[in-house]
Amino acid sequence: MFKRNLSSVLLASAVEELSSLPGIGKKSALRFALHLLEQPTENVERFSKAITNMRNGLRHCSVCNMISDSETCPICSDSRRDRSLVCVVESIRDVISIENTGEFNGLYHVLGGIISPMDGISPSNLKIDNLVERVSQGQIKEVFMALSTTMEGETTTYYIYKKISKFPIAVSTIARGVGFGDNLEYADELTLGRSIANRQPFKPENQ
Question: Is the CATH code 3.40.1360.10 the one for domain 60-201?
Answer without folding.
Answer: yes
